[in-house]
Amino acid sequence: MNLFRPLLALFVIVGTCLLSARWSEHHEAHSPFLALYAHLMPAALVSGPHEAPEYLLSVPAGWAPAAFDANPGEPGTQFVLTNLQLFQLCAVLLIGICFSGVPRYLRTGKGDPLTRVFAGFVHWVRDEMVYSTMGREMGRRFLPYFLTLFFFILFMNLLGLLPGAATATASIFVTAGMALTTLGLMLVGGMIAQGPIRFWKSLVPHVPGWLWLPMFGLEIVGLVVKPFALTVRLFANMTGGHMVVLSFMGLLFLMAQGAGALATWATSPLIVGFAVFIMIIEAFVALLQAYVFTILSIIFVQASIHPEH
Amino acid sequence: MIAEGTELARMGAAVGAGLAAIGAGLGIGRIGGSAAEGIARQPEAAGEIRGAAIVFAALIEGAAFFAILIGVLILFV
After folding, report:
1. What's the complex ipTM?
2. pLDDT of A205-216, one tens digit each?
3. Residue A54 forms beta bridges with which residues?
4. What is the 8-class DSSP label of residue A167?
C-alpha cells in the first residue's frame, strides 16, 4: 500500500499548525472571554523576541483605507501576513496533494487510499451537485470552478477544527472573496450565455412600462444580495460555532477565577462535554456549509445563465 | 469596547437575537416537518427531498444570520 500521499498530507497539516502556533501574535486581554474570543480574529505572523515582534511580511498598500492598516509602525496603510493566509495556502497544498493522483486513478483504477476517497468525493460533487442542477452539457464547463470552491472551503473549514489552527473561512474577507468570484461568474457567465444586452434585459420579468425602472433596481439589489448572503452565511456559521466552544472554555476560566479550584474541577466534565458536543456538530457543519455554499453558487449561476422567462 | 449608557442598546441586541432565533426555528421546523412528511410519503425521493430541504434551511439560516449580524453590530460598534 502506497502511503506517500496520506503521510505528505499529514505532514503539511501538522506543519501548518505548528508554524501558525509559532508565528502567531499573542493577544493580551483582561477578561478570559475576550482573551479567548481574540482567537477568532486573524493574528498577524510575527517573528523575533516576544517583546519586540517583527512582522514576517508587511506589504505597503497605499490605495487601501487607513482602517485596514495592520502595521502601525510603518508609514501608510500596510497589509501583513496573517495565520489565515497560512491555512489558505495549506488548503491549496492539500488540494494539490489529495487530487494529484485522481486523474490517473480514474484512467487506470490504480491509486492509494487517499486518492480513492477523493475520487469518490469528486464523483459525488459532479453527479449530485453540478450535473443534477445544471445538466450535463453546461455542468461540464463549470465543474472545475465548483469542484475547486467546494474542496477549498471544505479544507479550510476542517483545518479550523484542529488544535492550534485558525479557520480561514471564519474571516468575512475570505468568504467575501469567494462570493465575489461567484458573482463574477454569474455576471460574466450570464452575459456570455445570453449576450450582454439580453442578460440585463432579462433580469426584469414582464411588467407594465412604468414599473420597469423600479423593478430593474430591485433586481440589481437582488443580484448583489445573493453573494452577500453567501458571504455572511459561511462567515457566521464558522465564527458562531467557534464562539460557542470558546464561550464554554471561557466559563471554565471564569469558574477558576471566581469559584475556586474544586468547583472548577467538579464542573469541568460538564463544560468540556458540552464543548466536545459542539465540536462534533461543528465537524458536521464544516461539511454542510461547504455543500451549501457550493450548491447555492451552482443554483445562482444556473439561474443567471438560464432565465426563467 | 462597550461605552457607558448603551445598556438599552445591548438589551435590544439580545432581544433581537432571541427573536431571530425564534423566527429561524419556526421556519426550519416547518421545513424539517414537511421534509419528513414528504420522505414518509415517497421514500424513493428521499435523496432529492433531503437536498432541497438543506438548501431551503440554509436560505432561512442566512436571513437569521443577518439579524444576528445586526445584533453583533449593535453590541460592538
Report:
1. 0.75
2. 777 778 888 888
3. A47
4. -
